[in-house]
Each structure stands twice: as structure tokens, then as C-alpha cells.
């Protein structure tokens, strides 16, 4: 009896020990991610891997979700602390330089042949010092969303055209005529926004022409900086020195300021970000918006946006002196340098970089930056075709946009420029503050 | 017991006291002492996320930078104004509600559960709720204002401060109500009765009985609310992000942004320590005054 009891106890202890050390077993890979549409799509891809290639690789992947609010701060602290609790993690264009010291390059797992399937801009946006630090899984850029019905009437109705020209002459000093949105310059965008605002045109079918995003937030600067780059500006000059106090910056800032001062965008838009701009457009009280590609599915969904679904046209952001431009950044999956399972995690990354994996991810709601996949899925997701085209034709990553100082620079610009748009400081002071903030951020060790 | 015996007994008692205090002191050293020591080191260092374990000596440079940063002073001014106005409003409203509702609450105590509901909601959630309610396309408040002919942008530069104070007051007045109600109901009935027998009217009873006896509770409630309002973060972070511009950047938000978004760890820690010193001074002054005023 005592022997049986001892054996039972030993077996129990062995089982408990096995359970306790299970996380350290080879073959278990943990992906640190944020909750939301990306993690839901990623779960579908992980399920496909675990049920298929994962069995051959003898690898099982699972997700560990942190809350979205403050996600990058928490992820950075864990990476910097050398956490071994996760093997893979979310990386982005604007955090890649900051995270690179704690990530392992993935070049050994993602061969040049595999990389060639991706849009080059997405690979560049996740590379730092010549090394690739993430498999790009989502691409983000911007569209000009407009109401097709309203623009069609503007292009056909002589009375509207006459009013349009009169408003453009009075407010912008140029007798402009309406054009197709695909051919708009920033001045055409301003003229259309003024025309569709009741403050300037009592007969406007919408309350405001547009709904700009001017909250003190880094993502709003990413959207705005198309006005900068399309007019020949950038963060840094050819020598790598800050040049955010350039004439192109002033031009870009004043486009927004003109529209808010003339009430072509709601005065409340100085507190707007992504959701508020969506709501403005969904309500049918705004004729066009500059918005992230991720908004399209919701805006064109008849159950979520009954007023505007089916009436939405997409065009590139208006052109500056250098033509159309759009900020591009990527989300991707990187490899934790402190991971104890790098080889197993690398097997998953190698699978993730295939068209088959990206198709599963794209069908589940992701936006994979792989032109062949975007093309193949464009019947289900019509915006995909444009994303591929715009990324390759108009996409840019600002000089310094993947550097370790990218996030502090975005923050400094958001502080300074939102203060100008809110009327807190004049444009010269905002530009000087941005230049000083950028210089200080770049000087940080 | 002889004098020597008394001295020995006192010494033993004292040693026992130290032993009893030891767990608390150890707990404080671990939970407060280590972070404080780390903060002190970081506040006089140049340090970054990539070199958390190897800070470089910078002397008082971080403190100088903080004190020369106009946004720091703006944030301090915002937090101070916000805290003072919100505290006065909450305590005044809370006290007024106690005086008005006490007869009802004495009979129907369960009503308190409803009255304190707002403070049960997380401030971040309050921020999200008001973000929706104040939206000028789908929000209920701008729609009502529009119906009565008011075209106000409640999150615009002219109104944003007032809007944030009102949101704070709506959420936290129930706390003042609860704290002051307990103090009010603890006033001995015989005192009020005696005052009335002596011919005191309602105003006299309030002035000479209720008010003096409520003063400590009013002071403590105001103190707690002031501290809490001064370090406001959640609803501002969600609702305005510190804007428009930097107009609603509070001290907590300033420190958060310096630390996480600008990666100025030394500067953020130096600002935190300055805030800590200010809080300790305020605590010292307030407690001294409160204890001095406490009735024997």
C-alpha cells in the first residue's frame, strides 16, 4: 500500500512539474499582440498554421494580448527588460528604430525570394540599419474619401460650378473650376471643402466640407505630413539635419488652418482623431475626408453607415508641387532577441511570409502588403487594389521615420502643430518649437 | 517600581515597539524606498530605455530643464486651476446636497447607492462617454444646444477648460456628498436641540453649530479631492489628449508624455520629484492646520 501511495505521489509530482515547465518546451511560441481586428485576423492565420504547417514544424503558436491603450509603452518596457515570456511581438514603422536593440533580425528566416513578394515600401518601413526586423502583415496609408453623388452633381451642375468658382475666388484668390477628385491639388481640396460648408455656401447639402484630424496625436501628424512631403518638404534635409521649419511645412500647416478658420471643417475638429472623422462622414454631414485606409470597410458597410455606404469614392490625397503623396507605414511581427525559442518562432515567421498565409490573414480582415494577395482579394475588398497602387506610386516614409527618435519627433510635431491649429501660437512659433523639439529628440541618447 | 526598573521596562517596551513596527517599515522600504532611490538616481542622470541600467551622471540638469520648460509651468498652472475650481465646486455642491437631501436620505438610505453611481465609473470610461456625447455630429449635448440656438464647441479653446471641470465635478461631487453626509449625520442632535431651545433660528444653528462642527470634514474632503483632481489624467488623456495644443496638459499628462512619448526619462522623473515635494509641503501645511482646528 505504501509503495502504491509513494508511486502515486511521485507520479503526481512529475505531472505537476511537467505542467510547470511546459512553457519552456521547444515548439511553443508566444506572440505578443494587441487586441482588435489585427489580432482577430492573426488568430485565423495562427489556427491555419497550427493545424497545418505547424504540425510539420512541430511548433504551436499562441497569442498573448496586452490592452491597446499604451500598448507600445508596455511592449517596450518588456522588451527592454529582456522578458522571455514572449517570442514574437508586434512591430511598426514608427517604433522599429526604438525596438531594434531588443529584436533579432529576421533575415535568416525570411529569404530574399520570400521578401520579394512584399511591396518594397513595406519592407523598407520595417528595416533598420539594413536589417529586416519584421514580417510586414498590414499596410496603412491614406485615401481621400468623397461622396460620389455630391461630386457628380458638382461636375454637372452649372449653378453649383458658378458658386464654386465664386467661393474659390473670394477665399483663395483663384477662380477655380471643379475637377475630378483624382486630379485635385491641395487648393482644389480647399475650394471643394469651402463649397460644401454652410459657413461659405448656405445652399450646401452638407454642414461641413471636411473633417480634419487635428488632435495632439502622432497619428494625426502622419496624416498631415502628406501636405509637407507633396510640397517638397521632409523631416530632415540631405545632410540629415532637421528642416521642419521649411516653407513646405508652413504651406502644409496653413492648408489645415485655412479650413478650420473658415469653418470648412468643424471647429471641434481640433479634438478629432480617427473615430470622430469617421462619424462626421457617416452622418452624411461632411462631403469628404482624409482618412486611413482602415476606415473603408466600416464606412462602406450599409449596416454601420447607412447614409453613405455605396456612395463613397476613393482618390489619392490631393497633390502638391511634387504630385500626390501618402504616408505609408507597416505593422509586422518581429522576433524578441531574448526569446528562448528563436528557431521555432523563425519557422512561423517563414510561413507567415508566404502568399498562402497572407491570403488567410487578408481574408480574415488584415491588409497584407503583398501586391499579388491584394490583387487576388480585391473582389472581396475593393480598396485593396488601390492600396497596392498607391503604396507603390505615392507612398513615402519620412526621412528619420524609422529611427529610434521617430516617436519623440512625432510627439514634438503633434504638440507644436496642434497648438497652431487651435490658435494657441502663431505659425512661426509652432514651426520653431517643432524644430527645437525635433533637434532635442534627435540629440537624445 | 524603582526609577531604574521603570527605565528598563520603558526600554523593553520601546524595543518591542520597534519590532512591531519592523514589518511595516520593511514593507515601506521595499515598496517605496526602492522606487524612490531609483527615481533619485534617474533624476540626476541621462538615461534612456536602451540604457536603463547604465544612467550617466547629469547633476541638476534635468531639474533645470523642467523648471525652464514653459509647458511644465503651463501644466502646473492648469492642474492647480483645475484642482482648485473643481474642489471648491464639488465640496460646495456636495455640502448643499447634504443640507437639502439629508431628511430624505435619513428615511431612504438606499438612495445613496444611486447618488454615488458616477464615482463608481472609471474616469477613462467617463472620458469615452463624454467623447461620444460631445461629438458635434452624433453627440447628444451639441444637438440639444443646437436646438436652443447655441453653436458652442465645448472642446474648443474657449470652452474646453470649463467642460473638463464640469465633467470632473459631475463625477466626484457624490464623493463629497458621501463624506459630508456621514459627518453631518454625526452631529449630536442634542446640540442642535439645545440651540433651538435657546432661540436659535435655522441660520443661527447653521452658523454656530453645523458649520463649526462640519469644518474638519469639509477640510479633509476638500484636501482629498484637491489631491485627486490635481493629478487628473484618465479623462483628459481620453477626451482631449492634453489639447487643443497643450491647453489641457495636466501635470500627470506632462510626466507621462515626457517619459513614454518623448523618452525624456530623467526629465520626467525630475518633474515627478518636484511634484512630490510640492505635495509633501501641501500635506504638511494642510494637516497642521486641520489638526490645529480639530475640536478637543
UniProtKB/TrEMBL annotation, chain A:
It is found in: Periplasm. Keywords: Cell membrane, Lipoprotein, Membrane, Palmitate, Signal. The keyword Acetylation does not apply. GO terms for cellular component: periplasmic space. Belongs to the bacterial solute-binding protein 1 family. It comes from the Bacteria. Residues 1-26 form the signal peptide. Its main location: periplasm. PANTHER family: ARABINOSE-BINDING PROTEIN-RELATED (PTHR43649), POLYGALACTURONAN_RHAMNOGALACTURONAN-BINDING PROTEIN YTCQ (PTHR43649:SF33). This is Sugar ABC transporter substrate-binding protein. It holds the Pfam family SBP_bac_1.
TrEMBL record, chain B:
CDD domains: TM_PBP2. The keyword Transport applies. It comes from the Bacteria. It is a multi-pass membrane protein. Keywords: Cell membrane, Membrane, Transmembrane, Transmembrane helix, Transport. The chain crosses the membrane at residues 16-34, 78-104, 110-133, 154-184, 204-224, 236-259, 265-283. It is found in: Cell membrane. Pfam families: BPD_transp_1. Residues 76-286 form the ABC transmembrane type-1 domain. This is Sugar ABC transporter permease. The lineage of its organism: Bacteria, Pseudomonadati, Pseudomonadota, Alphaproteobacteria, Acetobacterales.
Amino acid at each position: 500500500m505504501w509503495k502504491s501511495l509513494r508511486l502515486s505521489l511521485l507520479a503526481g509530482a512529475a505531472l505537476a512539474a511537467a505542467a510547470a515547465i511546459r512553457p519552456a518546451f521547444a515548439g511553443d511560441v508566444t506572440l505578443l499582440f494587441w487586441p482588435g481586428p489585427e489580432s482577430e485576423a492573426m488568430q485565423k492565420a495562427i489556427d491555419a498554421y497550427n493545424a497545418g504547417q505547424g504540425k510539420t514544424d512541430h511548433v504551436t503558436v499562441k497569442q498573448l494580448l496586452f490592452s491597446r491603450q499604451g500598448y507600445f509603452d508596455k511592449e517596450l518596457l518588456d522588451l527592454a527588460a529582456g522578458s522571455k515570456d514572449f517570442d514574437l511581438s508586434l512591430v511598426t514603422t514608427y517604433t522599429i528604430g526604438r525596438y531594434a536593440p531588443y529584436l533579432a533580425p529576421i533575415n535568416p528566416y525570411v529569404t530574399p525570394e520570400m521578401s520579394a513578394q512584399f511591396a518594397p515600401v513595406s519592407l523598407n518601413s520595417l528595416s533598420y540599419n539594413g536589417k529586416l526586423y519584421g514580417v510586414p502583415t498590414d499596410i496603412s496609408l491614406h485615401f481621400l474619401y468623397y461622396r460620389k453623388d455630391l461630386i457628380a452633381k458638382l461636375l454637372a451642375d452649372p449653378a453649383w460650378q458658378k458658386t464654386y468658382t465664386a467661393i474659390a475666388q473670394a477665399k483663395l484668390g483663384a477662380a477655380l473650376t471643379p475637377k475630378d477628385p483624382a486630379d485635385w491639388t491641395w487648393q482644389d481640396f480647399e475650394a471643394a471643402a469651402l463649397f460644401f460648408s454652410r459657413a461659405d455656401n448656405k445652399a450646401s447639402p452638407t454642414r461641413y466640407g471636411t473633417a480634419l484630424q487635428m488632435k495632439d496625436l502622432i497619428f494625426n501628424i502622419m496624416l498631415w505630413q502628406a501636405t509637407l512631403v507633396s510640397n517638397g518638404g521632409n523631416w530632415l534635409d540631405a545632410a540629415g539635419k532637421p528642416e521642419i521649419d521649411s516653407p513646405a511645412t508652413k504651406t502644409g500647416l496653413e492648408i489645415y488652418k485655412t479650413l478650420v478658420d473658415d469653418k470648412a471643417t468643424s471647429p471641434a475638429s481640433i479634438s478629432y482623431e480617427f473615430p470622430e472623422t469617421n462619424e462626421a462622414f457617416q452622418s452624411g454631414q461632411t462631403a469628404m475626408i482624409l482618412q486611413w485606409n482602415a476606415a473603408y470597410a466600416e464606412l462602406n458597410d450599409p449596416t454601420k453607415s447607412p447614409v453613405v455606404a455605396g456612395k463613397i469614392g476613393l482618390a489619392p490625397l490631393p497633390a502638391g508641387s511634387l504630385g500626390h503623396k501618402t504616408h505609408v507605414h507597416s505593422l509586422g511581427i518581429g522576433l524578441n532577441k531574448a526569446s528562448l525559442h528563436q528557431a521555432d518562432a523563425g519557422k512561423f515567421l517563414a510561413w507567415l511570409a508566404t502568399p498562402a498565409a497572407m491570403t488567410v490573414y487578408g481574408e480574415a480582415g488584415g491588409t497584407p502588403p503583398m501586391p499579388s494577395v491584394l490583387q487576388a482579394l480585391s473582389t472581396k475588398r475593393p480598396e485593396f487594389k488601390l492600396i497596392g497602387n498607391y503604396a507603390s506610386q505615392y507612398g513615402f516614409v519620412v526621412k528619420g521615420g524609422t529611427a529610434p527618435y521617430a516617436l519623440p519627433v512625432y510627439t514634438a510635431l503633434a504638440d507644436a502643430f496642434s497648438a497652431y491649429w487651435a490658435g494657441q501660437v502663431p505659425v512661426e512659433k509652432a514651426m520653431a518649437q517643432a524644430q527645437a523639439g525635433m533637434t532635442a529628440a534627435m540629440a537624445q541618447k | 517600581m524603582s526609577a531604574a526598573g521603570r527605565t528598563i521596562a520603558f526600554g523593553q517596551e520601546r524595543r518591542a515597539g520597534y519590532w512591531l513596527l519592523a514589518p511595516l517599515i520593511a514593507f515601506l522600504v521595499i515598496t517605496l524606498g526602492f522606487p524612490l532611490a531609483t527615481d533619485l538616481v534617474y533624476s540626476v542622470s541621462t538615461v534612456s530605455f536602451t540604457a536603463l541600467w547604465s544612467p550617466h551622471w547629469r547633476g541638476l540638469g534635468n531639474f533645470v530643464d523642467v523648471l525652464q520648460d514653459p509647458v511644465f509651468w503651463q501644466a502646473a498652472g492648469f492642474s492647480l486651476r483645475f484642482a482648485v475650481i473643481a474642489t471648491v465646486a464639488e465640496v460646495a455642491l456636495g455640502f448643499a446636497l447634504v443640507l437639502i437631501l439629508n431628511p430624505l436620505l435619513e428615511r431612504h438610505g438606499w438612495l445613496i447607492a444611486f447618488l454615488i453611481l458616477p464615482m463608481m465609473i472609471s474616469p477613462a470610461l467617463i472620458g469615452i462617454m463624454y467623447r461620444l456625447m460631445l461629438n458635434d455630429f452624433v453627440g447628444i449635448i451639441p444637438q440639444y444646444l443646437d436646438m436652443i440656438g447655441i453653436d458652442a464647441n465645448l472642446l474648443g479653446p474657449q470652452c474646453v477648460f470649463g467642460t473638463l471641470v464640469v465633467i470632473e465635478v459631475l463625477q466626484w461631487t457624490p464623493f463629497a456628498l458621501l463624506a459630508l453626509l456621514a459627518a453631518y449625520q454625526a452631529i449630536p442632535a442634542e446640540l442642535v436641540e439645545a440651540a433651538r431651545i435657546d432661540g436659535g433660528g435655522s441660520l443661527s444653528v447653521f452658523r454656530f453649530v453645523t458649520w463649526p462642527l462640519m469644518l474638519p470634514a469639509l477640510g479633509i474632503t476638500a484636501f482629498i479631492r484637491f489631491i485627486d483632481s490635481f493629478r487628473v489624467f484618465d479623462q483628459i488623456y481620453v477626451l482631449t489628449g492634453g489639447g487643443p495644443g497643450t491647453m489641457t496638459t495636466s501635470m500627470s499628462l506632462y510626466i507621462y508624455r515626457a517619459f513614454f512619448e518623448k523618452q525624456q526619462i530623467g526629465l520626467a522623473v525630475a518633474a515627478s520629484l518636484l511634484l512630490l515635494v510640492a505635495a509633501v509641503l501641501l500635506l504638511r501645511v494642510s494637516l497642521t492646520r486641520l489638526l490645529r482646528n480639530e475640536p478637543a
